[in-house]
UniProtKB/TrEMBL annotation:
Organism: candidate division WOR-1 bacterium RIFOXYB2_FULL_37_13
Cofactor names: FAD
SUPFAM superfamilies named in the record: FAD/NAD(P)-binding domain
Name of the protein described by the UniProt record: FAD dependent oxidoreductase domain-containing protein
Gene Ontology terms for molecular function: (S)-2-hydroxyglutarate dehydrogenase activity
Transmembrane segments: none
Lineage: superkingdom: Bacteria
Keywords for the protein's UniProt record, in alphabetical order: FAD, Flavoprotein, Oxidoreductase
Domain FAD dependent oxidoreductase: 6-366
Similarity annotation: Belongs to the L2HGDH family.
Length: 369
């Protein structure tokens, strides 16, 4: 059987960032298995493309650490590689007295975990910078921005490939067997390879990859829940907003509330919302229009319901079930669970795009090459 040093399962933004990072350290001897015919066809191209500041993650969690570092690395990378981005900033806005009180505590908590560039805003401050937005008070985050996620993935793929990484597109990993020399991997095309190190970056299917390898997914709490996020575009609103505009988030933390995001052309989208579902599908139900309108109308008073059009959607690979508390990213070398040199990345939901380069570095540190 052919052998390879490292196999990466999944060519989303995370698998690509890991491939690029590792290919800088060893020349060649890395293969990336991807079930689709190209990279970045799943969650990595179905998101808000926001470079997050890291405001809501618990101190010392991987989400917090990798988001803070990833934010900095991503801007530097975009600048040096000429990937399109806009450091437009975001505002979090309150629209009632209860939320207005929460603004101060969100600001204090975020500042205490090391989030940079946060400023409290009064109603007048907000009117000056976003005249179309209604708010009682708010927070400005200067390190938040948007990027061209496809442009980012294209460069990561190109650089990894130039460093000798092999991409096996159209190859779904269907079997993984632990042997004394590593892991025997088999794909849907009948390809077989023996890999010294395996990195599971399979996004929505990462718990499935762990299961077929032999991990007790339930005992380890690696089972994923699917949480769908739908978007509605707003016609006729291009150029009306200059920052991303977020409400005060849901107290359970499933998502960040129906917010207004911008793309690099200034078009405005609402979403994503957060709905737990039992299978993966991407249709957006027009029946949600009223709920999106009501949520956003509170801070975007100019909105008319007929401006909202169903747009795209994405699926969050969540470790946190509907009634659970915060769950961190699982990014772990699995010797202690009986699978040495096997790295699981499970539950890489937001801020996975922001954190991708930091995740690449983190995984590089987990394995001795
Ligand atoms: C609605 C939504 C909005 C978001 N907004 C943001 C945001 O604004 N900012 C931010 O930082 N993050 C955001 N995120 C999170 C971010 O998109 C993800 O964290 C990131 O894209 C995860 O990348 P990934 O490579 O882990 O997963 P994916 O992009 O899902 O890639 C995994 C890859 O593995 C492949 N694969 C799976 N199984 C197999 C197999 N058996 N064999 C071979 N290949 C396989 C898949 O085909 C896929 O290409 C958002 C997510 C959602 C859902």
């Amino acid at each position: 059987m052919e052998t390879v040093k490292i196999s990466i399962i999944g060519a989303g933004v995370v698998g690509l960032a890991i491939a690029r990072e590792l290919s800088d350290k060893i020349n060649g001897d890395i293969v990336v298995f991807e079930k689709n015919e190209s990279f970045g066809q799943e969650t990595s191209s179905r998101n808000s493309e926001v470079v997050h500041a890291g405001i809501y993650y618990p101190k010392d969690s991987l989400k917090s650490k990798l988001c803070l570092l990833g934010n900095k690395l991503l801007y530097e990378f975009c600048k040096s590689k000429v990937i399109k981005y806009k450091n437009c900033g975001k505002i979090i806005v309150s629209t009632n007295e209860e939320e207005a009180l929460q603004i101060k505590s969100i600001h204090e908590k975020a500042a205490s975990i090391g989030v940079l560039g946060l400023t409290l805003l009064t109603k007048d401050d907000i009117l000056k910078i976003e005249p179309q937005v209604y708010a009682l008070n708010g927070i400005f985050s200067s390190t938040t921005g948007i990027i061209d996620s496809h442009g980012l993935m294209k460069i990561l793929h190109e650089e990894a490939q130039n460093n000798g990484v092999m991409f096996a597109f159209g190859n779904e990993v269907v079997k993984i067997v632990k042997t004394s020399k590593g892991y025997a991997i088999e794909t849907s095309k009948g390809e077989k390879i023996l890999s010294e190190i395996v990195i599971n970056a399979a996004g929505l299917y990462s718990d499935k990859i762990a299961r077929i390898t032999g991990f007790d997914v339930d005992a380890l709490h690696y089972r994923l829940h699917f949480c769908k996020g739908d978007y509605f575009s707003i016609s006729g609103a291009t150029g009306m907003l200059h920052h991303l505009v977020y409400p005060v988030p849901h107290e359970k933390g499933y998502g960040l509330g129906v917010h207004a995001t911008l793309d690099l052309e200034g078009c405005v989208r609402l979403g994503p919302d957060a709905t737990y579902v039992d299978h993966i599908y991407y249709d957006v139900d027009d029946g949600k229009r009223e709920a999106f309108y009501s949520a956003a109308k509170t801070y975007l008073p100019f909105l008319k319901e007929e401006q909202l059009m169903p747009d795209t959607s994405g699926m969050r690979p969540k470790l946190q079930g509907l009634n659970d508390g915060f769950r961190d990213f699982v990014i772990k070398e699995e010797s202690d669970n009986g699978f040495p040199r096997f790295i699981n990345l499970i539950g890489i939901e937001s801020p996975g795009l922001t954190a991708c380069l930091a995740i690449g570095e983190y995984v590089g540190d987990l394995i001795s090459l």
